[in-house]
Amino acid sequence: MSKYKPKKSFDILGGFQWYTPGIGGIIVFLLIFLAGLVLAGIIGSVWLLAGGGKDAFTLITYVLMFIPVLIFAGVMSRERAVWEKGYALDNNHFAPYGGVWMAVMAALSMFCLGLALDPVNSWIISLAPMTPDWEQALEQMVGGNFLFNFLSVCIFAPLFEEWMCRGIILRSLLQKIRPVWAIVISALIFALIHGNIWQGFNAFAIGLLLGYVYYRTGSLKLTILMHFCNNFLSLMLSRMESLSAADSWSSIMPGWAYWTMVIAAAAITVGTVIVFSRVPLTGRSNCDEILPEEIA
Q1: So what's the pLDDT on residue 199?
Q2: Is the pLDDT score of 295 beyond 50?
């Protein structure tokens, strides 16, 4: 019986490029993710009961929750590799600007979007103050052991969440439905996996930007970089005593300076989106087609 064999042992993303589920398949994929979330919670609880540290709890459970979907997607891709066309998860469509310039624009767009969203985030918190349990949970993610926080928030979160929300879900939807709906649906899923309203709106807006960049470039490297920049900035700001207690930049800046910053950040974000809009598309999206593997 023939089996798919990666051409290179280090071609990690290549093992998933033939898995492009439709809406029904994505629902199954998300149910498996939820099962992994439950499994990770159980194992994490056992860890705490056995005397394991809380700092390692978030890191351990975060990694474990993605293992079932990683295995599932890999198996499904290998089964389809010999008869179904695939689409590469990571591409390099950076013309006419080049990869370095695209990386600079991607990082800048993420930083500016975060500033532009500050008034909305402040408004949401004013309408629905964060509960003590969620405050404690979020504090544990950014205020505990720095190494564990950095690995969880800045390394594994960008890698796993971009692989799932852009590399698997958005890449698949772009081949089956209109791009605008594919980007919206993937951003909504990205918001929902955060599990709370205080991060949810911000995650949805960020997911729209990440989705658009992936749609235009096909580059998972760029979205991982953007995700890293956002999370790293949040982690560092949360550990600064002068800023950690502030719910909004408006509480530490004069009104005129605050709104000037917000408007300028929004304008720059729009400008970077225009830059990405000028990257030519090669098909329904810039995810390169991969032909079926020959039977070994």
Answers
A1: 81
A2: no
Peptide bond into 96 cis (omega under 30): yes
What tens digit of pLDDT does each residue of 240-263 get? 766 656 667 777 888 889 999 999
Span 184-216, pLDDT tens digits: 999 999 999 987 777 888 999 999 999 999 999
Contacts of 136 (CB under 8 A, 6+ apart): none
The pTM score is 0.90
Interatomic CA distance for residues 38 and 27, integer angstroms: 17
- Rg of the chain over CA atoms, in angstroms? 20
Task: Judge whether 58 and 152 are in contact, CB under 8 Å.
Answer: yes
Least Cα distance to 54 among 132, 133, 136 occurs for 136
The Cα 93–Cα 280 span in angstroms is 8
User: Which helix (DSSP H) or strand (DSSP E) does residue 210 occupy?
Assistant: helix 197-217
92, containing H or E segment: none
Which uninterrupted H or E stretch holds 289? strand 289-290
The answer to whether 82 and 286 are in contact (CB under 8 A) is no
Q: What angle do CA 211, 213, 217 make, to 5 degrees?
A: 120
Q: Which residue has the tokens 């490297």?
A: 221
Tell me the C-alpha distance between 174 and 179, whole Å. 5
